[in-house]
From TrEMBL:
Its main location: mitochondrion. It comes from the Eukaryota. It is found in: Mitochondrion. Keywords: Disulfide bond, Mitochondrion. Pfam families: CMC4. This is Cx9C motif-containing protein 4 isoform X1. Belongs to the CMC4 family. PROSITE patterns: CHCH.
Length: 87
């Protein structure tokens, strides 16, 4: 591979390695705005929290860093349900 090809080769991979915008970033920002406007009372922001959950449900696990907290929460619920079956 000559220098010109090599340069293009690295440019191509650099493009692939660029971080992508999180698909649920907009909803996460809306939650932050809502919480700030309502003195961090989650009960006042349930509608925007539901919108974030809907967004997270549209993407495969691991696609959204923002959704990773919800994914962990779901895993914990499943573990708890399976544990309760044995009681």
């Amino acid at each position: 591979m000559n220098k010109r090809q090599n340069k293009n080769h690295f440019s191509y991979f650099s493009f692939l390695d660029m971080p992508q915008k999180d698909p649920c970033q907009k909803q996460a920002c809306e939650i932050q705005k809502c919480l700030q406007a309502n003195n961090y009372m989650e009960s006042k922001c349930q509608a925007v929290i539901r919108e974030l959950r809907k967004c997270c449900a549209r993407y495969p696990k691991g696609r959204s860093l923002i959704c990773s907290g919800f994914e962990k929460e779901e895993e914990e619920k499943l573990t708890l349900k399976s544990t309760l079956k044995f009681c």
